[in-house]
Amino acid sequence: MLIGDLARLSGLSKDGIRHYEEMGIVRSLPRQAGSRVYRDYDPANLDRIARTRQAQQLGLALKEIGPLLDVHDTRDFTEVETITFLEERLAVVKGRIVELRHMEAFIEEKLSRHHALAEREKERAPQEQ
Prior knowledge:
By secondary structure, the chain is mostly helical. 72% of the residues lie in helices and 9% in strands. The chain has 5 helices and 2 strands. The protein has a two-stranded antiparallel sheet with strand order 1-2. A hairpin with a 2-residue loop joins strand 1 and strand 2. It starts with a helix and ends with a helix.
């Protein structure tokens, strides 16, 4: 499929497709059509784009996602290399979870404090009238 088709079906712009290709997420092959050379995109790229979006929603960066997809899609890695890679990714994800929990606690504490202040303001408001 051509880049326009992939863009339309995936919801990405053509520039987005090109960026994903630079990051190793999307792959294409050159295709000769007369005197012109086009990039031919395998429909499997639609699944890679969908997985990439899911991973981004989980906080992974594009540079982290490409290698994860490669581990999932190919058998070019030994089992030991795959295990090592996945353990490293898991450690990063767990670290982010810890950071997010700290941020959650911080926000909850601030929210609780502001709720208490708002409640005191409501209690004082009728007295001031």
